[in-house]
Amino acid sequence: MTGSVNESMLVQKMLSTIRKYDMFGPGEKVLVAVSGGPDSMALLHALWTTREQLSIGVCAFHLDHMFRGEESRQDAEAVRSYCASLGVQLVAESYDVPAFAEEAKLSPEEAARLVRYRLAAAAAASLRCTSIALAHHRDDNLETIVMRFLRGSGLRGLTGIRPVREHKSHTWSGKVTRPLLQCSRQEIESYCRQEGIKFRIDRTNLSDQYVRNRVRLDLIPRLLEYNPNLSETVTNMSAFMADENDFIDGLAGQLLDSHSRFADGVLEVELDALAQAHPSLARRAILLAIEKIRGERTDIYSTHVEDVLDLIRTDNRSGSLSLPGGAIVRKRYGVVEFTLASMLASLKVPKYKKTIAVPGFTVVPYTSSVIVADVFPIEELGDRHKSGDRSVAYMDYDVVRDGLAVRNRRDGDRFRPLGMKGTKKLKEFFIDNKIKQEIRDKIPLVVYGRDREQIAWIGELRLAESVKVTRKTRNVLRLSLEPMLG
Fold it and tell me: In this structure, which long-range contacts are made by residues 148-152, counting pairs with CB atoms below 8 Å and at least 24 apart in sequence?
């Protein structure tokens, strides 16, 4: 550390934020997501510089999204070189995000976020990190809030970027933190100059093709003419809103817990419970319901929520709405149903078979789900396979490693359910488990073997006896079926 005033200001703000939100504790290991830009390079340096003071370990993660060809590869090389100069362990990945976005029918931004978070979580798990640190700063928070305001966001959207959020998945659970959230872009760039930190510039951030860039480069400078301290003002405001948002979230969650049920991809909420609730509580319950069936709330704005409220309040006994992301809301028989259009489609799903990436994640055709796969030694399993969570399966990797794929059902399918001595027709299994006829073609079957026809797992329903973890197992394959945008 040079001890300069500006550097001290950034480090002091970072340390204050870390302590205020209890981001890291002594002995923890932090994975810093590093793009190569000034923000993440400054964060890596600042955490590395203060690692002994904080009693933490520091390592890094970089993802080449393959959006910008040679420039992306140069970004990766710059990050590798800088991490090597600091002696920081780096996990560097590359992933064809443009191809994934096209396959999954997602925007480039949505696809990049999904890939980035899932691969960062996998890296955090492999390095035994307790936290992932992101380099969002105060001006990022201002941009986010202004954009959400322009789109008609409600209270939750105006809380902005959270300093800390809990991440829970089958791959990794821990904290996602933003230590620089109280620092400005100017302070970060000054810190980089004074510490001699070389960084990369993503030219797409300067293009007026993207709304966020126009907000940052055109609108916000105009707003600053009215309030030069706008960034700090909005950050303080968003912190107050976050507390109120959490309070309403809790009440809405209780309402749904008491007055809803979820089965076969449909969330049914009692109509009277929503109609009689305070409007603010009803709106939040609607948002939580949409989030449950979609995995997230992207592109759901106040106008959509008001449309659902109008549907609830109307005297008509039935009705339906289509919302962004394939969400469907139906009012009938005294309940409000939240589901996805894919769950209601009457057309038969075409037959498909697709290789599962191990490790990695695979889009399940004709659904809004992905299969996330990873392999680890038996010594790390513990009792996780006994959790009873039907969205995840643990199996002997050496048994299934040949020909692992996902497909939907075929005539004559049979398998040996876990715990049974003999085989059973898949059709009979569906009947016994009361699986509706119209969704059977949509249930993913994980298969293996040279012919890729032996059923290993009926997604979220039952594992096959033949692939279970035993005393002879050396390597465990974990497969989890997760919402694409969760």
Answer: 150/215, 151/301, 152/301, 152/302, 152/303
Instruction: Fill in the DSSP letter of residue 385.
Output: G
Nearest to 480 by CA among 363, 367, 370, 353: 370
The contacts found for 209-218 with CB under 8 angstroms, 24 or more apart, are 211/147, 212/143, 212/147, 215/143, 215/146, 215/147, 215/150, 216/139, 216/143
Tell me: the pLDDT tens digits for 129-159?
Answer: 999 999 999 999 999 999 989 988 888 889 9
CA 235 distance to own-chain centroid: 24
CB within 8 Å of 143: residues ≥ 6 apart: 212, 215, 216, 220
CB 212 within 8 A of CB 147: yes
Architecture of domain 252-344: 2-Layer Sandwich (3.30)
- Find how far residue 466's CA is from the centre of its chain: 32
Q: Locate all alpha helices (DSSP H) within 260-348, ordered by sequence.
A: 271-276, 279-294, 302-313, 341-344
CB hemisphere CA count around 49 (13 angstroms): 19
Return d(Cα 477, Cα 394) in angstroms, integer: 6
CATH placement of domain 5-137+178-226: 3.40.50.620
Burial of 422 (0-12, 13-18, 19+ CB in 10 A): exposed
- 89-133 per-position pLDDT tens digit: 999 999 999 999 998 888 888 889 999 999 999 999 999 999 999
**pTM above threshold 0.85:** yes
Name 272's Cβ contacts closer than 8 Å, sequence gap at least 6.
334
CATH T-level topology, domain 353-483: Phenylalanyl-tRNA Synthetase; Chain B, domain 3 (3.50.40)
